[in-house]
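Reviewers of the previous submission asked for a worked example of the structure-prediction workflow described in the proposal, so we include one complete record here. The input consisted solely of the amino acid sequence. No template or homolog information was supplied to the procedure at any stage.
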Amino acid sequence: MTTDFIHVYEPGTDAARPPLLLLHGTGGDERDLLPLGRLVAPGAALLSPRGRVLEHGMPRFFRRLAEGVFDEDDLRLRSDELAGFIRAARARHGLAAPVALGFSNGANIAAALLLRHPGLLAGAALLRAMVPFAQPPAADLSGTPVLLLSGVSDPIVPAANSARLAALLRADGAAVTHQELPLGHGLSRMDSALTGQWLTTLNAG
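From that input alone, the workflow returned the following structure tokens.
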């Protein structure tokens, strides 16, 4: 299993802030979420890999069979590869456990990381995420902070799916903040403002 990902690493200037693991959506790359990361967590170290799967030439973190239907075998493989990358990057750069900030496909693999590798992430901001597994593995996420931001008009992620993800993570012990926003699937200033506020509470804690 290779843990080599094309990625960008920006060292932090504020040691009090946990590093951010930036996970882009379909068609994005390792630079997509850097401006958002700098905005919501000024001074935090940023680690931003590019997904290694291509869908019609567009990078993704794992394969899907159709919109909203995941190739779960590939998701398991790819989330394990990404976990290896995170561990290697932490060792290379002397990083604390990161907080994931993922959008869409990136949020979905972040949710998979929480469930398959509990303790790997210090927390996760999941923007437009779905339940990653039809039969999610049991995970001890006691106290792990999770922000879930969903759009009430999202044509890709049904509201019931977002609610199920929030309930699933809470049942595993995560401290979940779930907010349904008057938005679709795309990101807005509301997302960045809420994510920044949430990260500030983590920093204060």
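The domain at 7-204 is CATH 3.40.50.1820 (Rossmann fold). We consider this example representative of the routine output the project will generate in years two and three.
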